[in-house]
Amino acid sequence: MSEEPADDAFHRAARELRPLFRHHTARLVLRAPGSTRSVPSDTAHTARAAVRAATLALLEQDGLGRVHVGWWLEDGELRAAVRDDGPGRLRAGEAVTANVTERVAALGGTLHVDPVPDWGTTVTVTLPLVPAPQPPQHPTDVTPEGLHSLHPRELHVLEQVALGRRNREIAEALGVSESTVKFHVSNILAKLGVTTRGEAAALTRAWER
């Protein structure tokens, strides 16, 4: 898995955010993680996408004076927060897109939206720096119970994989991005204890018999 320094990843996010404020009266305040530690590129990319989506949503509000964006590395996690001083009435579904929510979940992360009326809204994304360890399994030892560990969206992706479809075809069928499909496939393989799509498909077909 490729990695990038946390501060470099944050400054890339900052470069993407600054143009959004060029014609806006609100001021952008940035707080870099201040760490020499590297983070997985998928984690950094997802954090940047979530921060950008949240910032765009916050900027749609009236009466905004400041937007604060900060990243923190602590306890094996990357925490990215976007906070404003606006009306504090933004709902969770309005703060980020479904695509971003799926990407955060695919990495085992969490996303919280905390609006406080007349004080502002805080959007916090927490992503693990190391994937949760999976118990070692041999494909022949996996039972249908393994399906219970999959989320509904992962089950839908697995059905498509079992049909022999590639990521682009699955993305089109489910109405998500190809990168989201990749995240789901990676999680599915880990949860089922297999290493290839073919093994996952074979298990699925065996369970259906």
From TrEMBL:
Record carries keyword Transcription regulation: yes
Superkingdom of this protein's organism: Bacteria
Record InterPro entries: HATPase_C_sf (IPR036890), Sig_transdc_resp-reg_C-effctor (IPR016032), Tscrpt_reg_LuxR_C (IPR000792), WH-like_DNA-bd_sf (IPR036388)
SMART domains: HTH_LUXR (SM00421)
Keywords, in A-Z order: DNA-binding, Transcription, Transcription regulation
Domain (HTH luxR-type) ranges: 143-209
Protein name stated in the entry: HTH luxR-type domain-containing protein
Species of the source: Streptomyces oryzae
